[in-house]
Design a protein that fits this description.
heterodimer; A: mainly alpha; Non-ribosomal Peptide Synthetase Peptidyl Carrier Protein, Chain A; globular; B: alpha/beta; Rossmann fold; 7-stranded parallel β-sheet; 7 helices; 7 strands; 15% strand
Chain lengths: 91, 225
């Protein structure tokens, strides 16, 4: 399972910056300090991690791109989606 | 490794064979099965999930992709108002949507590599507004627009995105087009001659070179317009 702390570590690692981020921080939109290119890199890092856990994290679903329920709404929602897909794979 | 879609026939085949001769590691993707010996995935590029499976296979096997060349395409000569809906859908699906899917799915492999080249295929008919190719031209104009925007989105990752727009080249795509029509199309080119497939493979090779790293978002009309 991916913890909030691990995701935040992944984000900081990918962006090579010690940005101020917590589980409730927005990953997209005006209040986010992550640009769209950074978001792509975070997704690729999560995909790489998922492959080492035996599944492939899908960040291109309709839900991912939905503005209301986007998985990128916050670090927390992204963690939840990652773990949901992990659990789905383990079923 | 270089991915070539539509690599088992026409220009795609010429491009993949030329790249292999130049010593490149090439993997082709097309609907057809390929004789053993060459790296190939049999897959319809209009099927997002099938393409995704190719991506996952390559990604899991640790393949590093340096370029994506989207040659897969179909043509249909017909007046706009007499083109059957099934033909319209098929041309748009393969040429435009298939190309978009391929870019969306494989570009992340280039991003992981922090650089690379994407070459999409258009046609000189877009620029000259060729009568009798409205749907085909619409699909390729879409590819040009998509490529221009993608070039901007991928520039921060040192990835260039360009279109090659050939005139008539002797391949199966020209089946059903009379010599008269071909002569008329060619007369619109700055260099008024029918190009050989080598004119395209050379252009591909040029865009793959390190010296082409600052060429992006362009449509290169082979033969000039």
């Amino acid at each position: 399972m991916l913890s909030h702390e691990e995701l935040i570590h992944v984000i900081k690692d990918v962006l090579e910056e010690d940005i101020d981020i917590n589980p409730q921080s927005s990953l997209i939109g005006g209040s986010s300090s992550i640009d769209s290119m950074g978001l792509v890199q975070i997704c690729l890092a999560l995909e790489e991690r998922s492959q080492s856990e035996g599944f492939s994290f899908d960040w291109t679903s309709e839900k991912a791109m939905s503005s209301l329920n986007s998985i990128f709404k916050s670090a927390e929602t992204l963690t939840i989606e990652y773990n949901r897909q992990l659990m789905e794979h383990k079923k | 490794m270089i991915i070539v879609t539509g690599g088992s026939s026409g220009l795609g085949k010429a491009v993949s064979e030329d790249l292999r001769q130049r010593g490149e590691d090439v993997v082709t993707i097309s609907r057809r099965n390929q004789p053993e010996g060459n790296a190939h995935f049999s897959c319809d590029i209009t099927n997002y999930q099938s393409l995704k499976e190719v991506y996952l296979h390559l990604s899991k096997s640790g393949s590093k992709i340096s370029a994506l060349i989207n040659c897969a395409g179909i043509a249909s000569m017909n007046l706009a108002i007499t083109t059957p809906p099934s033909v319209t859908e098929s041309v748009i699906n393969t040429n435009l949507i298939g190309t978009i899917f391929s870019n969306q799915i494989f570009a992340p492999m280039l991003i992981k590599n922090k650089g690379g080249r994407i070459i999409n295929f258009s046609t000189i008919a877009v620029h000259i507004g060729l009568k009798g190719e409205s749907v085909y031209v619409a699909s390729k104009a879409g590819v040009e627009g998509f490529s221009r925007v993608l070039a901007k989105e991928l520039a921060p990752f040192n990835i260039t995105v360009n279109c090659i727009a050939p005139g008539p080249i002797k391949t199966n795509l020209l089946k059903g087009i009379s010599d008269d029509q071909i002569t008329k199309i060619v007369s619109n080119q700055t260099i008024s001659k029918i190009m050989q497939p080598s004119a395209i493979t050379e252009m591909v090779s040029l865009l793959l070179r390190e010296e082409s790293r600052n060429i992006t978002g362009e449509v290169i009309n082979v033969g000039g317009v």
